[in-house]
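#lab-general

N.A. 3:47 PM
ok so I finally got the sequence cleaned up, no stray characters, all 85 residues accounted for. can someone with queue access submit it? mine expired

B.Y. 3:52 PM
send it over

N.A. 3:53 PM
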Amino acid sequence: MLVAANLVTLYVLYLAVAISPDGSWDVRQSADNVQLLSAVSGVLAVAVAVLTAFILAARWLRSRWWLTAPAVILLCSAVRWLFPS
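B.Y. 4:20 PM
back already:
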């Protein structure tokens, strides 16, 4: 379940990174779309981190390395949100 949740979050982040303007007329709209997708991937990363913390607290997993993926995705989402163009 955590792998699937991280993959969905990573896909949304990929969409935020892959968006590019079609031309000079599309720069503002594509920047808005990048910021929206970056925010969505950030929220998803936080949700996955909370789910991971719950699973770790229930001791279903022993390794805290599971928190690395949502943390990296959240960091990349924040950087992409700050620099949309």
